[in-house]
Amino acid sequence: MRKLVILGGGYGGMKVMQQLSAKDIPHDYEIVLVDKLPYHCLKTEYYALAAGTESDHEIRVPFPKHVRRQYGNVQNIDLDNKKITLSNDTKGETLEFDKLVIGLGAEDKYHGVPGASEHTFSIQSMEETRRTYEAISNLPPRSSVSVVGAGLSGVELAAELRESRHDLTVRLFDRGETILPMFPRRLSNYVTSWFEKHDVEIISNSDITRVAESALYNHDERITSDAVIWTAGVQPVQVVRDLNVEKDRKDHIILTKHHHIPGYPDAFVVGDCASLPYAPSAQLAEKQGEQIVSILKAQWKGEELPSSMPEMKLKGTLGSLGKKKGFGMMGEKAAVTGRVARLLKSGVLWMYKYHSGV
After folding, report:
1. Where do the FAD/NAD(P)-binding domain residues begin and end (predicted)?
2. What is the CATH number of domain 110-232?
3. CA neighbor of 230 nearest in space, from 349, 346, 119
4. What's the whole-number mean pLDDT along residues 231-248?
5. What digits encode the pLDDT tens for the residues 165-224?
6. Is pTM beyond 0.90 here?
7. In whole angstroms, how far apart are CA 174 and each of 74, 136, 198, 207, 231?
8. Domain range list for the chain
9. Phi and psi (nearest 5°) for 309?
10. How confident is the model at residue 90 (pLDDT cuts 50, 70, 90)?
């Protein structure tokens, strides 16, 4: 039996699986998913799991039943010989593929800051988020938490922490003059105002030079912190960074217009590991997954591939400020704030779960 192997059950890999039913693939093919966990995780909700406002069970989605699952960690990808080396708790093994979709996601990037990898918590994977939740939950009253990085993840996490633990001192560190620079100034000001009202300290123009066991250093000034959570940048996982293929300056794999690696028409890359002209997001990974499915179907039918691919139009970005308020952009120009934005985000999450069979 020939194999379409999907590495990683994130948003992009999930979309490929959902749109390729048994009738869509050749009779001599099977779909094999390689993942560490037996379910898809809603990474956009990891901030809430870490803060303790959502349970582990609430952010799980079952994988499609028609896909064969193989559990383990990907240790090596051999594109030339079409082999994947895996490891799990008991042994290592090799998995051959005929078609491959690499969707292994991202991990934290520490920018060379001493002590950051050893002394910070993360929300990049389900396992790491569980550890972060446990650490936050075990903090005694009047402890301090520092969130490093005021992008979307850092902002949502800091806000959720404030709602879940009113007794904590919460600080949000950002390198820029204003938080959320990717949004219009109106939204940045709205979020800043929310933090001021809810007693979350924003430390702008920060430069974290070192992290120690109970402190971080901003411009070499020591700031005591009982827990430091790192949301200050990501990079493709190590096994992808080790691939001997062309990458951009951030180590994302450069692809053809058909989303496969140049010279390897059977190896596609989706999501955070792909070099695309957009900021990485769950929505983008899904759009890309849809296009990869269209290319796979054309390849299997022996059809000529399209000379160009449709533009991946994104519907916007929504963020939460606790359970009652939010912010975001619908399309390119429509800014939304407050209760409406939070309800929209909740609705998007409900629709995703509904269409995934939850």
Report:
1. 3-289
2. 3.50.50.60
3. 119
4. 97
5. 999 999 999 999 999 988 999 999 999 999 999 999 999 999 999 999 999 999 999 999
6. yes
7. 33, 21, 18, 8, 10
8. 2-36+72-107+234-301, 110-232
9. -110, 150
10. low
Amino acid at 43: K
Nearest to 266 by CA among 70, 12, 78: 78
Q: Is residue 2 a contact partner of residue 30, using CB atoms and an 8 Å limit?
A: yes
pLDDT of residue 358: 61
> What distance in Å separates the CA atoms of residue 10 and residue 14, rounded to the nearest whole number?
6
Mean pLDDT estimate for the chain: 95
Q: How far apart are CA 354 and CA 315, in angstroms?
A: 19
| CATH number for the domain running over 2-36+72-107+234-301 | 3.50.50.60
Residues 6+ away with beta carbon under 8 Å from 57? none
- 3-state SS class at 122: coil
pLDDT band at 89 (very low <50, low <70, confident <90, very high): low
